[in-house]
Amino acid sequence: MITFHAPGQPWVQLTDHAFCADLTRTAVWIDLFEPSPEDEQALEEALGVDIPTREEMQAIELSSRLYEENGMLFMTATVLTKADTNSPQSSAITFILAAEKLITLRYADSAAFAAFRTRREANLQRYQTSYQFMGGLIDAMIERIADILEGVVVNLDRISLKVFDAEAPDGTSQWENQPRKRRGKSRKARQRDFVEIVRRIGSVSDLVSRVRESLVSFVRLVTFFREVRQGDAAARDSLVHSKSVIADLGSLSDHASFLSSKVSFLLDATLGMINNEQNAIIKILSVAALVFLPPTLVAGIYGMNFEFMPELKWAHGYLFALVLMIISAVLPYLFFRRRGWL
After folding, report:
1. For strand 29-33 and strand 12-13, is the pairing parallel, antiparallel, or unpaired?
2. 112 & 247 share domain
3. How far is Cα 129 from Cα 315, in angstroms, rounded to an integer?
4. Which residues pair with 257 in a beta bridge?
5. Which of helix, strand or coil describes residue 334?
6. Which residue has the higher pLDDT, 260 or 166?
7. How many CB atoms lie within 10 A of CB 15?
8. What residues make up the domain containing 103?
9. How do residues 98-148 score in pLDDT, each as one tens digit?
10. Comparing 219 with 191, which gets the higher pLDDT?
11. Which helix (H) or strand (E) holds 33?
């Protein structure tokens, strides 16, 4: 699908390749979304530009993602898509920038593009040049990344409350300082909760890592644009704006790094809680073994049936052995309770 955006006019979708040349002539921003081979061929003939293939867009080398050819800039960045779902994805978007036109090539739908298109439709006279369209798109993507990070903060706060068994009274953000009463939840249920928390932390960690990857790619893209267009008078306003863009990207990168460290902390805390639960089980088993060890010793002694054992023919010998076993079991139990080990 190809959409054409001319200054001061609503966007137009290409339905017939015969009109591609006419629409290309007046458009400043041309957006290719999952284009077919026929779409690419028609646009290449109208513009005289070799549009990168999907494999070239996904190349890792800097020389393949950021380069200048015949006065046009070919810049590929990584954007985060499907961030609101359980399976976020990273996709490449290529910006082909000339003084007169901006061409975007993408194979994944991005919420930032829809937001920018809506913003432009509300004020058709605001964007007139290719540099203005480029700056508007990058601003929309930065805003989208900021929204994603805000959602990550909310998600991490919920996970933190779950891990540390805290609660928010009356739905406010002020947490109680009083220790909450222990719920009658089984140990097995708590283990299932911790497993679910680990899954959620893993999902958030993947999302944050993809955000950081996207931020790094945009920092490289904007830096490359500034270096190449440093002496271009037509791009003067965009160069000035790019300073604030780089500052915003740096702030978001620092925030993403902080969230990444918080994710690591919550993961360590959750694993520590799981270890505490397992240690409690091992402690109970160890104490039970120590409690029943003295009675076992008594039973073993009086089960040897030696011929000259004094209590063997005693009328109260059996009762004596039972009382001795009970006392030898109760004393360690009381000792452990006094020391606070139970």
Report:
1. unpaired
2. yes
3. 110
4. none
5. helix
6. 260
7. 9
8. 52-276
9. 878 888 888 888 888 888 888 888 888 888 888 888 888 999 999 999 999
10. 219
11. strand 29-33
